[in-house]
Amino acid sequence: MGYRNLRECVLDLERNGELIRISTEISANLEAAEIQRRVYQAGGPALLFERVTGTPFPMVSNLFGTIERTRFLFRDTLGLVRRLVELKIDPAEALKKPFRYARALPTAWAMQPKYLRRGPILGGQTRIDRLPALKSWPDDGGPFITLPAVYTEHPDHRGWQKSNLGMYRVQLSGNRYALNQQVGLHYQIHRSIGVHHAAAIRRGERLPVNITVGGPPSMILSAVMPLPEGLSELTFAGALGGRRVGLVRQTNHLPLIAEADFCISGSIDPTQLLPEGPFGDHLGYYSQQHDFPVVSVDRVWHRKDAIWPFTVVGRPPQEDTSFGAIIHEITGPAIPSVLPGVKEVHAVDAAGVHPLLLAIGSERYTPYSAERRPQEILTQANAILGQGQLSLAKYLIIAAEEDDRSLDLHDIEKFLVHVLERVDWSNDLHFQTRTTIDTLDYTGHGLNTGSKLVIAAAGQRRRSLPETVPANLNLPDGFRSPSVVMPGVLAIQVPECRSYQDGTAARFAAAFTAQHPINRFPLIVLVDDSEFVARSLNNFLWAVFTRSNPAADIEGIESHVKEKHWGCNGSLMIDARIKPHHAPPLIEDPEVTRRVDALAAPGGPLQGII
Predict the structure, then answer these.
(1) Alpha-carbon torsion, ordered 432, 433, 436, 439, to 10 deg
(2) Which of 71, 31, 65, 72 is nearest to 51 (CA)?
(3) CA distance 177 to 141
(4) Phi/psi at 554 (nearest 5 deg)?
(5) pLDDT digits (tens, 9 = 90+) for 282-329
(6) 3-state secondary structure at position 530
(7) Are strands 246-250 and 114-116 parallel, antiparallel or unpaired?
(8) Given its phi and psi angles, is residue 577 left (phi above 0), alpha (psi -120 to 50 degrees) or beta?
(9) Whole-prediction pTM value?
(10) For residues 312 and 320, what is the distance between their CA atoms, to the nearest angstrom?
């Protein structure tokens, strides 16, 4: 059976050498976050901070710090949940292999929540200003909850069956929030809470909200699961936790999750918005301050032995990388049944997830043709961009499995090399302009607004890819330090961008013809620091795909438009410099770094860990 609550999980990790206690008093203002980041980067254990400045509650972090530890947390149920996914794909498998799937039936029963009269969550009440005030980055607008599970029910369909449990960031104080009376609720586009909020606004009603913190780890993971609209995350939490989720009924309010550690109960005013943020987010930059919904706080519940779980987001990889990995392990096999013809998709964590999506599809439209070209994979690309949170992808690169059945999307360099060997820039670029993109992506021309690009490659190899800079390569004035990132990709350092769309990429493209040797590199990226971008694949993925808006930042040598289709005869260029309107990158506070260094010195609580 899975864990009943968070404390059971903490004690089990400690018994198995996967968690250490920090008895030294730690500040939740930047210090705890920097410790978490550095322990995560070191592959270290989960951390229980027993004494936290300004709060009576201990904090725990890095529960999901490695994929191995994440699997360990769900070792009793993960295989059974995978079998339920297999049955969803093909129910006939239960008849073919009855003994394999018989053990999954109790897991299906655990998907049904149960109502209770009382629960540990009713152990006590407190105030917002007594909760751990976690601030992760120096310019954050205040303290935030970073592992919340926000529970709402559809105003037209009360009850858990149409409920939503989602991880949306919550600002506890700062800005214009009335302390202990209001908290900020930031949710991105294409989140199910938006459906509930829209219904409440239509009805002219407040939307009741329970902001849950803690509980068994299955609650945390369920809050980030990309489930179809209308399917409650409570069902998945029960399956993954190996037991039915207990809900404590409340008069005139939503039920409380019985085994949660904390719950902020309140409601959203349909007419009120307040500035929320800034917040250092998982793309590696600050989300800027914008107006978002406000939760009026009624009560703050907590269990008597409550522990406050937290994580820190920033430039990936971070702890939330494990969420993506485990979700892929659980749901990946279902992709072909949801998206016919698509074999695999991979949202690239190193690029911030939504900025770059890779896919392998099938080309079966004209199997009799002597030459394969992108046809069916374009249909599949459109289906991908119409599917749930996959629709937030900014760059989608798709290839045909028939060209190389050994392709593995997690071998990113091999996949990109495969595409660059085959792509025809005059034909294989498909833009969507002035559309929606991820709320956290500031490369477009407004909040939630930007462009998308599908790169679809199929057929025989067109070119061999160079791995060294051509001798005697002459670059236009101001362009310097060419560096090979990987076969076929050249990074060139260019002057700082001082005004949006300053013409730098167009000027570079105009300096060459399609016959110039530089075109041996099918992809050229124009960057602020070419040495940094070429230093590692992760640097390339992060800098290029989080700092470019396809419709505005792509140019090509001998570009042309034919029948409203843009293409180029020579190299493709992506202007991946930081632009004036981009969000600023995240940087640690040097004084906090020195304090954490001291904790890692001989005799310190972090000696030998970081």
Answers:
(1) 110
(2) 31
(3) 11
(4) -105, 130
(5) 999 999 999 999 999 999 999 999 999 999 999 999 999 999 999 999
(6) helix
(7) parallel
(8) beta
(9) 0.93
(10) 8
